[in-house]
Amino acid sequence: MKYSRHTLATRISHCTLFVHGTLKSQFCEPVEEMLREQLYDLNDGVESQVVVSYDQEPDPNLNKVENSGMLGGSSNLFSHISHGNYDFWDHNKRAMKYKGVYSAEAYGEKAVEVIENHANSKNENPMFLFLSFQVPHEPQQVPPSYINKWKSYANVKPERRKKLFGQISCMDEVVHKVVNSLKHNHLWNNTVVIFSSDNGGPFRNEASNIPLRGQKRTHFEGGIRVVGFVNSPLLSDEVQGKTFNGLIGIADWFPTFIEGMAGGQTDRVDIDGINVWDSLRYGTPSPREDYVISVGEECLGAPVRNNTKYWDTIGIDPRTSIRSGPWKLIVQQDDTEPSTKPADVLLFNVDLDITESTNLAEENEDIVRRLRQRVKEYCSKTVPIVSFKTKHFPKSSNDNQKGCQLDEKYIRRGNY
Questions:
Q1: What is the chain's percent helix, strand, coil content, to nearest 5?
Q2: Chain-centroid distance, C-alpha 283
Q3: Alpha carbons within 13 A on the beta-carbon side of 131
Q4: What is the Cα–Cα distance from 75 to 80, expressed in whole angstroms?
Q5: b/e per residue, 45-63, with b = 16+ CB within 10 A?
Q6: Are residues 172 and 225 in the same domain?
Q7: E strand segments, 275-340
Q8: Domain total in the chain
Q9: Domain end position, chosen among 288, 322, 356
């Protein structure tokens, strides 16, 4: 939205506070995974409602929160068929009534239902509603009415870009309906809406991240810095209509929701996030000083292999990246071959060089060393890698629990 020449989201673009410095993962699904796991670990008087699509197998913990949506990936957005099976659920039961309903519209319908039920229940506990759309994303399916509105724009080419715009327009309309439901049910005055993308757009889908360098699956700003906004009557006058450029990481949303907005505590959960609610509400500097995007080789020391000499790129990204103040470090590794050659070390001052065009690594070796050491400090907190590829895995007591830890013989640690 931020960098498009066209007004794609005419409704949600009327935001209160534009958030420009949020860092996510270079892949899909980071928000879903981060929030889902933490919600399961914490039940602190917050009514949790999840309307979402997950790009992985069903999780046995899903019954701990009210949830609806898709549990698999690569699904048809109308039929909801994923890998040969119908995949649209309402609290662990197949919801056949949504067959043929476009997923974004189905999610919006369910979200409105959740809001109305909460309002009618007179429940005094805070409600957390997580609404995760599949759009804009492949497959580029969208109701014809949302494509037709872009037919008259001769400069919107090719057809795939019209479909991309159509998906965004549909999402815009659904968000508008959800906000109207909050207002109609007299919940808006005590509500905070946070809208955020999950990663940069991929070029093959005609997305544009200009002026940011890179795209989805890269560690450049075009892959990890995402647009978003916060809209709420609870924000102070000082931030109305302003842009917040402070550093926020994906891990910060959970403590911001629980501690900052709901008045709860997260001390029972081991998290890396920081409560940034005061920064958003009053425009004060962000307490976040640095953020590790990927630990890669800095943490593993050697390739994790899937019975071959090549990287298991499904389960691990061999690249390292960290943001600290204005500095951004990327340690590039070949993601198909084991690291037998020196890595490409890139250092940018993203405050002065948002396009990441000038590598400052050679003249700032002390900063490079400091940032690499900071990554290794984070590595001490990491847990074993989970791989869906290995054939050697412990027997699960729950048939729904897929995946496992890699056997030690697949993890070769060395001195880095």
A1: 30, 20, 50
A2: 23
A3: 27
A4: 6
A5: ebbbbbbbbbbeebbeebe
A6: yes
A7: 290-294, 320-324, 327-332
A8: 2
A9: 288
Nearest to 375 by CA among 343, 336, 334: 343
Do 75 and 176 lie in one domain? The reply is yes
Q: Using 50, 70 and 90 to split pLDDT, how confident is the model at 12? A: low
Cα 412–chain centre separation? 30
Residues 273 and 391 in one domain: no
- Write the pLDDT tens digit of every residue in 234-285: 999 999 889 999 999 888 888 898 888 877 777 766 777 899 999 999 999 9
Local structure of 58: helix, strand or coil: coil
Residue 318's alpha-carbon distances to 313, 352, 378, in angstroms, are 8, 27, 16
* Cα 125–Cα 95–Cα 403 angle in degrees, nearest 5: 80
Q: Structural domain of residue 402, as residue ranges?
A: 291-410
159-184 and 103-121 helices cross at what angle (nearest 10)?
10
Least confident of 181-195, 293-307, 332-346: 293-307
* Secondary structure element (H or E) that encloses residue 254, with its range: helix 253-255
pLDDT of residue 29: 57
List own/partner pairs for 182-186 with CB under 8 A and 24 or more apart: 182/115, 185/115, 185/116, 185/118, 185/119, 186/119
Q: Which residue has the tokens 């056949």?
A: 96
Q: For residue 9, is it within any domain?
A: no
Bridge partner residues of 320 (DSSP): 331
**Residues 280, 311 share a domain:** no
37: how many CB neighbours lie within 10 A of its CB?
A: 15
